[in-house]
Structure formats: C-alpha cells, structure tokens
Amino acid sequence: MRKGVWITRSMDYDQSQSHMRSTLIPFSPAQPSKWKDPIATESRSLDAISGNKVVNEVNVQVILRCRPLNEDEMHAETPTVILCDEIKGEVSAVHQTTNKQRTYSFDGVFGPTAQQKELFQTISPIIEEVLEGYSCTIFAYGQTGTGKTYTMEGQKMGKSWELPSDAGIIPRAVQQIFHVLKSKDAEYSMKVTYLEIYNEEIVDLLCPNENLDFAVNEAKRSIILMEDSGGATFLRGLKQALIHSADEIYELFEKGSVKRRTAETLLNKQSSRSHSIFSVTVHVKDCTPEGEDLTKCGKLNLVDLAGSENIIRSGARELRAREAGEINKSLLTLGRVINALAEHSGHIPYRDSKLTRLLKDSLGGTAKTCIIATISPSIHCLDETLSTLDYASRAKTIKNRPKVNHRAIKSELIKDLYAEIGCLRKEVNALREKNSAYRSQDHYQNQENQMKEVPYHNKAIDQGDHSSVLLKDKYKENAKNKEKDALIRDLRSSEKALTEQILKLQKELENAASDVSSLSAKAEIHDRLLDENKTRFQNFHVQLSLKLEYLHKAVAASAEQQQQQMKLLDVKMQSLMSRRNEVSEELALQLRKIQDLYCYHIKYIGEIAGEIDRNFQSTCHKMTSEVSRGFSSFGDIFKEKLWEGISAIHELKDIIYSQEDKLTTFVQEQGEVHLRALELSKTSTKATLTFFENLRMHLSNMSKIEEYLQSAIAEKLRELEMKFEDFAVKERLQLIERVGELLESSDNRKKNMVQEAVKCLSERTASRAGKIQQEMSQMHDLTSDAKKEWTAYVEKMETTYRDNTSTLQIDSNMKESSRHCIGKAELVAEQLENISKSASGLEDSAGSMTSIIENGIKANETISSRLASAILSGLKDANLAPHPVSTPENSSQAGWDSLASVCSIIDSSCQDMGEMETFHKQITRNAKSCLLDEYEVDVPS
Q1: CB atoms within 10 A of CB 529
Q2: N or C: which end of the chain has fewer CB within 10 A?
C-alpha cells in the first residue's frame, strides 16, 4: 500500500514538473520581410508527425526603425545625422567631424514618418509561423528613449478593447492569432505568461497578489531558472493563464504592464527599468492527409528590452544608477553573445546573464527571431546610434535552425495504453496461476473486511506519517530560520559595507568608464584625423610634385625655346651683318664709279677749255698774221671772224650756262640724297642702339628678378624651417602637458602653417614664372621690332644708292669755276663788242689792236690757268671722295661688336635659364623632403 501511495505521489510530482516545464520561455528567430517558409509547402506524413521536423538554417531578421525628433530636440533645432532609405532598406549615419557617412543595410527600414501598421505588416508572417508549430521571437533593441516600448505596446486600449490606430506589435499579434484561428475554425488551447527581469531578478507580472515593493516581496516572487538534462531552459514557479479570447489577453497584458518598473530620466519621461517578456503558447489540433489527429505547439515571445543609457546624460542616481548598471550589464552580455555568434566563436556566454539564458533558443537555437532595432536621428545620440547599428548589423549574420513542434497522435496513445493494459493482465493471470489456494468463506469474509479497513488504516498511517514529516519539516525549518536569521544579520551588516563599497566602486567605475569612453572616442577621432591628414598630405605632395614637374617642364621648354630663339637671332644677325657688308661693298663700288665719272667729266671740261684756249690763240695769231700781211682785207675778214668769235663766245656761254644748270641740279639732288642717307643711317643706328639698350635693360631686369626671387624663396624656406622647428618644439612641450586637448589643434595648426608656406611658395614661383615669361615676351617683341627696322633701313639704303648711281657729285669749287668762266666769257664778249665798236679805228692803230689781242691772249691764259687750277682742285676733291665709304665699314664693325655683345648676353641668359632650372629642381627636392620625408605623423602606441 505504501508502494501505491508513493507511486501516486510520484505521478503527482511528474505532473507538477510537466506543468512547470510548460512555462518555458524560448525565443524564435525571425525571417526576412518576404516570408518564405520551407516547411509550409511540405506534406506532413505519419513519419514526419512522429517527431520534430528540422529545416535549413535561416538568418535572424533585422528591421530598423528611426523615431522622429521630440519636442525638446525640435525646439533646440538639433541637427539630424541619420538618413533612411526605406526603398533600398539602407540607413546612413553621417559623421559631422569627418563629413563621412556609413551605410547599413537591413531586411526592412522605417523612417520617422512610418506608422505602426506599416511596421506590423512587415513582421506579420511570423505570426502565421507560430500557428504552424514554430517558436518565434520578436524583440526590440536600442538606446533608451528611442521608442522600443511604443513599438511593442503602442497606445493603451480603452475599456472596449478596440485597437487604436497606433497600437503596438503585441496587441496586433494577438488580434491576428485569433483572427487566423477563427478563420480556420480550428480546435485550440492558449496560455500566456508575462514576466520582467529587474536587477537580474525574474518577476511574474501575472501574479494577482503581487506587491510593487520589491524589497518586501523578494522571497514570494522569486522564480527559479532551471535547465533539464537536454539543456532546455524552463522557469519553475511561473504562472500560466489559460486564455479563451483576445479580450482576456488584453486585460492581463494591461494589468501586467501597470506592474512593470518605469521611471523618469533626463532622456525619457517614462523609461522602462526592466526587460519584459510576454509569451503566448498555442496548441492547435489538426488532421493529417490520412485523417489522423495532430497537435501543433507554437510559441510567440514578445520581448521589450530596457534601453541602454549613459548614467551621466540620463541623470541616474543611487537606485536608478544601480538599475541602469544592471540594464547595461545584461545588454552588454547580449552584445557579447551576438558578437560570438556572428564570429562563430566556440564559446557563447549565454550563462553570464538571465536575459541571454532565456534568449538562448532565439539566438543560434531552434526558433525564428526578428530583431527591431530602434535609433534616434539626433546628433547627440550618434555614438549610441552607431553602437546599435553595429550590433544590429552583426545580428543579421546569426543563423538559427528552426523546427516544427508536434505532439503524438491520439490513436497511437490509445494503442499504447491498450497494449500496456494487456501486458498487466497477463502478469496478473500469471501470478494467480502460480499462487492459487483454497480459502473458506469466513476467512474470505474476514480478509475482505480487513481489506476494506486497510484504506482507513493506511489513511491514518499516512496522516501520522504526514504529521511527523510536517513536524520534522517545521523543526528543520525553525533551525534553518535561526541559521538564516543569523546569516541575514551578518549578511545585512556585510551588505551595508559592501553596498557602500559598491557605490564607491560604482562611482569610480562610472567615472572611469566615462573617461575611457571619452578617451577612446577622442583617440579614435584623433587616429581618424591623423589618417586623413596623412592622406591629405600625400595627396598634396602628389599634386605639388605634379605641379612642380609641370612648372619644371614649362621652364625647361621656355629655356629651350629661348635658346632656339637666341640661336635664330644669332643666325639672323650674322645674315644681317653679312648683308650689310655686301651693301657696304656695293656702296663703295658705286662711290668709286661716281668718282671715276666725276674725274672724267672734269677732264672733259678741261679738254674743252684747252681746246677753246687753243682755238682762241690760233685765232689771235691768225688775226695778227692777217693784220700784218694785209690790212686791206682786214675789214671784211675781221668782221666775219669777229662775228664767228662772238657766236662762238655766245655758244660757249650757252654751253656753260647749260652745264651750270645741270651741275646745280645735280648738286642739289646729290645733297638731298646724301642728307636722306645720313638721316636713314642716323635713324637705323639710333634704333639699333635703342634695341640693344632695351635688350640689355630687360636682361638686367630678368637677372635682378631671378636674384630677388631666389633670395626671397630661400629666405621664405629658411623662415619656414625655423618656424616649423620652433613650432614643433613648442608643440612637443605643450603636448606633454595637455595631450588630449592639443592633439587635434596641433595637427590643424601644423597643417595650416605648412599649407600657408607652400601656398606662398607656389604663388611666388608662379609670379616668378609670369615675370620671366613677360620679360621673354618683351625681348621677343624688341627682337621683332629691331628686325623690322633693319629690314626697312636696308631697303631704304638700297633705294638711296640706286638713286646715287644716276647722279654725280660736284663740289662747290666746281660751281665757282663755272661762274668764273661764265664771267670771263661775258668779259670776252664785252671786249669783242668793244673790239667791234672800235673796228673802225683798227685801220688807224694796228699797234693798239695788237696790244689788245695780246691783252686778250694774256687774259685768256689767265682764265685758262684759273680753269686749270679749278680742275686740279676738283680732281683733288674727287680723290678725297672714297673716304666716306669707310663709314659703312665702321658701321659694319660696330654691328659686329654689337652682335658679339648680344651673343654674350644670350649666353648669360641661357646660363641664367639653366640656373633657374636647377633651382626649380632644388625646390622640388626640398618640397619632397619637407612634405614626405621630414613630416612625421604621431602614431599611437
């Protein structure tokens, strides 16, 4: 009988254990927004129904939701740093310091304007998977104040339990479950549980006698988290409520939500201080294609996690600080689990937190999970937002192995029971056959009566045993209570000391954590800025190298072009001087021809004068002889000869006048020609001198500009070097004292200083190149002008000397001789007239006639002598005429001297251009050495 009682108690215990295990809180993985269930299309045969069907691995579904700016943020005009692309499913976070953005892609993205209904439509396929026998989990994750509770619960419902427009996922999921069950007209049973994890303690929110004071009711509400032999996690002591309608769930959920811990912080007016888990378990009866009964068990776990918070920003103190520490601890463990699963680590730290132990099946287990990551668009929450995006992005890579939960068929259970009953009957029959005996009626009746009394005795014994067990239990409990009281007193005293120590350590830890986080952020920003600065300096070095190389090529090309132009100028100058020599030779030849012609005409005039003199003397002698031989015929002959002499004198006079006019015209034309030639020579000489003077002045200016630029650039580089060294020394001293504050400003100042110096150097180099180019252009213009002037001069000289070939040069002495001859001729004419007048008296005085003739002869001889002297002076002047030819030769020599000076200037200019090219190469090497080799970046150790 005791054995039977023990069996009954064992069965009761197993039933209670089975009831407690039914309250297991698994979390199931989510699927992508376009839900594709690999199980939904499978035919469920009897072989598949006998156990759990495992499908392929699926990734955790991650949906991101960004809340709008709140009233305080909009009033403060807080800038936003989050950009949501709902079509592409991407979220971009903009870094204000680096002006860069990071983009994340998720299974679904909902911006600040998204409604609750739109979000639920994306995850509604998960609800149908629950009714197919899967364990599914939906939980919200993010910073405090980003709308996790609003997303899960939404607006509170009224007494009519009608869903408002902004109802959350939990009431909408319940409504959809009942709607699907009603549409299928299926037999089902439903149970719900609702708990919270507050300061690492599990609290049942459905307990009707729950007191909100945690310290008083800690022992009553303690729920034990256990694991069975298979590793499954279950909660002992958690109440399950049997549900028949959606309104009952709404009512229970509202009551449980009121009991949940919330508090006001600086970041949120109603901040959740605990993690809540609302579970719905559905048993649905179904039939297989063969007509057999099938029971599918699905679970939906809806988790509202408490948000991570910065204690300094949230203003949490004492109890609130402890709550925040526990929340951050559990979320940190959750992050470690996500990282370990994403990195496929061998050890997953599920047991470091009760939250991760309950979510064990949802993260890397056999459930389907959907994570709703909530973020804030404000710039003040950028660090927390980036952390949430990183965790959500890693969670996408987690893979679960969901399976369908089936129960055995009812007919199979009945067959098993019948088979067991048959076996028991066979055993009873075998015992009867083995121990059979004859009994009397009285003995049988007594035995029957005793058998009837046995239950009463057993009951009494059981009551006695039960009383003794109760007494023993009370005694043990009292002893334990005394020990507990002593331990409690010791624990309280030690707890006070530990609490004080913990508070101190917590404050120090908070300060250290804030310092470490700020230093880490600053170090990260500093490293990023250093990398960017290094990249910018490298890019600047490349650009500067390219520009300097381009400038070097331009200067080299300019120098080469200048050398070519100088060579061309040299060739043209040599050609010009050779042409000038040829022209001078031609001019000397023409002058010699003019001299010969001049001498010829002078001799011709002398011959004419001699012939005139001879004719006159002959005539006089004839006249004398005729007078002496016969004076009788003298009258007629004398008249005839007299008139012939007069006509000859008149003809001579006309010839002399004609020659005088021609000579006068020739002298005037020749004077004008020589004046023009002189003016042209002066003009060309002046233009040549001006050209070479300008060329010398411009080359001098180029040399001065080159020297000034070289000295200025050298001085600027020395100033830059000294300034950079002094600045680096000062910065090292300051950085030793204030490392955290001055790193960024030091790099900025160094960068600005180098940029200003290099910019100044580039500007000066560009100015120098411009000035050199300007001087070269002016030199080229002057060369062209000189070339044109020399060409015009040569053409004018050629024209002038062509004119000179058609004329003769007559000296002023020749002009005076001609006038003297004309005067003598006129005097002779007058004397002949006087002779004609006195012809009538010749007969009376032949002696006077002879004397007159002799006087005429003497006068003629005088005239002839004077004419001869004039001819001799003209010849002497003609012999002196070749001397002016030396002027072009001298001018040609001066031209060669000028050409030599130009060549020397050209050589010096080429040398200066070579030095300029060398100096540019030196600038390139110095820039490379300064910007690439000597510039050092502070690399953190």
Answers
A1: 17
A2: C
* Amino acid at the residue 557: A
Distance of CA 249 to the CA centre of its chain: 57
In the prediction, which pLDDT does 23 show? 39
Distance of CA 702 to the CA centre of its chain: 40
Task: Judge whether 142 is annotated as a binding position.
Answer: yes
For residue 575, give the nearest of 889, 782, 790, 778 by alpha carbon.
790
User: Is the distance from CB of 802 to CB of 588 less than 8 angstroms?
Assistant: no
Q: What are the start-end ranges of the H helices in 132-164?
A: 148-152
Residue 741, both tokens: 């504050």
Residue 144 DSSP SS3: coil
149 among the known binding-site residues?
yes
Q: Which residue type does 339 have?
A: N
144 is in an annotated binding site: yes
Instruction: Give, in order, the Cα–Cα distances in Å from 723 to each of 727, 747, 924.
Output: 6, 15, 20
- The answer to the question of whether 296 is labelled as a binding residue is no
The phi-psi region of residue 161 (left if phi > 0; otherwise alpha if psi is between -120 and 50; otherwise beta) is left
CA distance 384 to 259: 29
Sheet holding 82-85, edge to edge: 82-85, 90-95, 100-105
Q: Is 807 annotated as a binding residue?
A: no
Q: How many CB atoms lie within 10 A of CB 515?
A: 10
Q: Residue 154 has what DSSP assignment? A: B
Q: List, in sequence order, every residue forming a beta bridge with 282; answer none if it has no partner.
A: 190, 298
Cα separation of 72 and 93, whole Å? Answer: 22
Phi, psi of 686 (to 5 degrees): -65, -45
Per domain, the residue ranges of the chain are: 56-407, 556-933
Q: What is the DSSP letter of 842?
A: T
Q: Which helix (H) or strand (E) holds 902?
A: helix 886-928
Read off the pTM.
Answer: 0.43
Three-class secondary structure of residue 64 per DSSP: strand
Give the residues of the chain that fall short of pLDDT 50: 1-54, 210, 215-216, 218-220, 437-439, 808, 842, 880-889, 891, 934-941
Q: Is 850 annotated as a binding residue?
A: no
Question: Cα–Cα distances in Å, from 226 out to 315, 329, 354, 777, 881?
Answer: 36, 21, 11, 96, 141
Both tokens assigned to 894: 């001066």
Residues contacting residue 143 through CB under 8 Å, at least 6 positions apart: 307, 308, 309, 374, 375, 376, 381, 384, 385, 388
User: What does the pLDDT look like over 449-503, one tens digit per residue?
Assistant: 666 666 666 666 666 666 667 777 777 778 777 877 887 877 778 778 877 877 8
Which residue has tokens 């509604």? 124
What are the phi and psi torsion angles at 24 (to 5°)? -60, 140
Judge whether 146 is annotated as a binding position.
yes
At residue 932, the 3 state secondary structure works out as helix
Per-residue tokens: 652: 């001579």
Cβ atoms of 932 and 536 within 8 Å: the answer is no
Establish whether 143 is an annotated binding residue. Answer: yes
> The tokens 């959750």 sit on which residue?
334
CA angle (805, 808, 809) in 5-degree steps: 125
Q: What angle is formed at CA 311 by the lines to CA 306 and CA 313, rounded to 5 degrees?
A: 105
H/E segment holding residue 312: helix 311-314
- For the record, the structure tokens of 589 come out as 């030849």
Q: How far apart, in Å, are the Cα atoms of 682 and each of 525, 582, 674?
A: 79, 19, 12
C-alpha to C-alpha distance for 108 and 122, rounded to whole angstroms? 8
State the DSSP code for 79: P
Q: How far apart are CA 349 and CA 553, in angstroms?
A: 66
Side-chain half-sphere exposure of 89, counting CA atoms within 13 A: 12
- Quick one: which H or E segment has residue 728? helix 634-737
The DSSP 8-state label assigned to residue 941 in this structure reads -
Distance of CA 500 to CAs 326, 327, 813, Å? 17, 20, 141
CATH number for the domain running over 56-407 = 3.40.850.10
